[in-house]
Amino acid sequence: MKTLITARFDKSQTELLESITKDYEFAGYGVTGIKMPVPEMKEKIRGIELLISEFEDITREVIEAADALKIIVCCRNEAFASIDIEAATEKGIPVFRAAGRNAIAVAEHTIALLMCVSKNISLTDHLLKYTDQLTGVHYNDDGGKRAETMSEWSMDPTAPFALYGGGPEMFGKTFGQIGFGMIGREVAKRADALGMKVLIYDPFVEQAGMDYVHGQKTDLETLMKESDFISVNCNVTPGTIGIVSREMIALMKPTAYFVNTARAKVLDYDALYDALAEKRIAGAGLDVYPVEPIPAGDKFLSLRNVVLTPHLAGSARDIVGHQIDITLHDVKKYLAGEKPAFLCNPEVMK
Ligand SMILES: NC(=O)c1ccc[n+]([C@@H]2O[C@H](COP(=O)([O-])OP(=O)(O)OC[C@H]3O[C@@H](n4cnc5c(N)ncnc54)[C@H](O)[C@@H]3O)[C@@H](O)[C@H]2O)c1
C-alpha cells in the first residue's frame, strides 16, 4: 500500500508500520516541522493509498485530488481539526484518529500544575531566580544559632517559610474530576494514587466505570462544593460550553484549587479571575486560554495565585510513539475486517 507519512514518526514503530506496508515515504511536518501547504499536498497525494498525517490540512480539495486514497490516519485526538471528514466520508474513505495519544501527558501536567500552585513552587522559583526579594534580605540569625546549623532559611514572619509555605498536602483531600474520558480517567487515576478521595462528574459514565479509580459519581454542584482540588477535562460540546460557570466557581471552598487543561470554552475566565483576585479560592493552574497566545498584559499574568503554561500539556515527546501505535493497530483491525476503536466516520464501513 503506497503510503505517505507527514506525521512525526518514532522509529520504534517501524516494525508495526512495515506489518502494514513497506512502500512508504516521509515528507511534510514530520520531516520539516512545517505543515506542507495544500497545493503541494494536492500534488503529493496522487497515487497515495494510505496517508498518515498529523497537522497538515487535509481539505476537501486535497481529498478530491486523491486518486487512490483508501485510508486517512490523523495522529491527533481531534481529527476534524485537520481533516475534512465529510469530504472523506463522501468518498468512502475511513479516517482514523489517535484518541488519547497525549492523555498521560496532559494528566501528568494537570497534577503538576496543581502541585506547583498549591506548594508555591513556580512563584518561589521565580522570586529566587529573577528577583532579589528572597536573596537580597537578612533575617534574624536567632542569636547566632542559625549560622551554626544553617538548616533553615529563617522562621521570621517575613521569611519564605511563613510567606509561601503552608500549602495543603494532596493526600487525604478530595479531588473533583469533571469529565471522565481519555484524559480525565488518567487524571483521576493519579489523584487516587496520591491517596485522594475522588469525586467524578460525567453524565455519560456510570458508577461501575469509575470504580477502578475508587471514584464516586456525583453531581457538579456537590463536586464544586466538596472538592479541595478540581480538574476539568471534558470535551467541548454544546453541553459543556461554560460548564464551569460563575455560579459553579462561587460554590468552591476558599482553600480549593482549580485547573483547566481542557479547552477555554468550558470555563468562565472572568469569573475565575474574580475569584482568584478576591482570594475567594486559593489558586488555579491554566494551560488553555480564550485567546492563544495569551496577550501580553492579560489580567491573569499579574496574579500570584495562578500558574500558567502556554498550551503545552499534551506536548510530551513520548506521544510521537503513542500516536502511531494507537492508529496503526486500529488500521490493522480495520484491514482484518474487525471493528476499529477510533474511526471518525464509521458509516464508511456499512
Ligand atoms: N491542553 C492540552 O494540551 C490538551 C491536549 C489534548 C486534549 N485536550 C483537551 O482535553 C479535553 C478532554 O480530552 P479527552 O481526550 O479526554 O476527551 P474525551 O472525549 O475522551 O473525554 C471527554 C469526556 O467528557 C465527558 N463529558 C461530555 N459532556 C460532559 C458534561 N456535560 N459534563 C461532564 N463531562 C462531560 C464525556 O463523557 C467524556 O468522558 C478536550 O477538550 C481536549 O480538547 C487538551
Structural class determined from secondary elements: alpha/beta
- Helix content estimate: 25-40%
Shape by Cα distribution: elongated
Architecture of the largest domain, according to CATH?
3-Layer(aba) Sandwich
User: Can you list the ligands bound to this structure?
Assistant: nicotinamide-adenine-dinucleotide
Q: Strand order within the widest sheet? A: 8-7-6-9-10-11-12
Tell me briefly what this model is.
The protein has about 350 residues and is an alpha/beta fold. It has helices at about 15-20, 30, 40-45, 60-65, 85-90, 105-120, 120-130, 145-150, 160-165, 180-195, 220-225, 245-250, 270-275, 320-335; strands at about 5, 25, 50-55, 70-75, 95, 175-180, 195-200, 215, 230, 255-260, 285, 305-310.
